[in-house]
UniProtKB/TrEMBL annotation:
Pfam families: VTT_dom (PF09335). One of its GO terms (cellular component) is plasma membrane. It is a multi-pass membrane protein. Belongs to the TVP38/TMEM64 family. It is found in: Cell membrane. Residues 71-189 form the VTT domain. The chain crosses the membrane at residues 13-31, 52-71, 91-108, 141-164, 170-192. It comes from the Bacteria. Keywords: Cell membrane, Membrane, Transmembrane, Transmembrane helix. It comes from Periweissella fabalis. This is TVP38/TMEM64 family membrane protein. The keyword Nucleotide-binding does not apply.
Length: 196
């Protein structure tokens, strides 16, 4: 077994363990009413009791889910709005996603294909590598995809790290294109929280 295969296996088992733990935490939070009572959720994170610590915890969670994409991004995006409201939720989501995505880009730029191979299987890996062969086309696809809600931003950030895209170009695209999709999520979740 090669070193990269062992690393892939370790990431795979760690993902299963984290998913199992998250499922347990999710069940516990559901049991205590964190998903049905916003006051319970805010008290768990400490939004009211630790107003300075709560955003730091949220930032760490948001960056973690980008670098180790086992928590769906829609969950953390909605949590930001529910916990901090539409405006602060938008600011925290936006800034933490830009930081996390840039870190993912830089990690892939540093460690190369081996880093990306930990997140996607070999068949997909080959398919996605074809995307970055034409740099100008990939840059356009990346910009449009980041603009749209629901795009696989984490994977796209990693692919951008494998491409010839400059860090400045990557960050500028994130800064300009990402607010729209985050605003859509923030507005939608803010609207839904009025009825549930």
């Amino acid at each position: 077994m090669t070193k990269s295969t062992k690393t892939h296996q370790i990431f795979k088992y760690l993902s299963y363990i984290v998913l199992f733990l998250l499922a347990g935490v999710g069940l516990y939070l559901w049991y205590i009413g964190a998903f049905t009572d916003i006051k319970v959720l805010r008290s768990i994170v400490g939004v009211d009791t630790h107003p300075l610590l709560a955003p730091i915890i949220f930032f760490a969670l948001q960056i973690f889910q980008i670098l180790i994409p086992i928590i769906p991004g829609t969950i953390t995006l909605s949590a930001g709005v529910v916990l901090f409201g539409p405006w602060l939720g938008f600011i925290y989501n936006y800034s933490s996603i830009v930081i996390g995505s840039t870190l993912a880009f830089l990690l892939v730029r540093r460690f190369g294909k081996k880093f990306v191979a930990n997140y996607i299987d070999e068949g997909q890996h080959t398919k996605y590598l074809k995307w970055i062969e034409d740099q100008q086309k990939f840059t356009r696809i990346f910009a449009v995809a980041i603009l749209l809600p629901g795009a696989p931003d984490d994977l796209l950030s990693m692919l951008a790290g494998l491409s010839a895209m400059r860090l400045r170009t990557f960050v500028v695209i994130l800064l300009i294109a990402k607010p729209l999709s985050i605003a859509v999520y923030s507005g939608a979740f803010s609207f839904l929280t009025r009825f549930f």
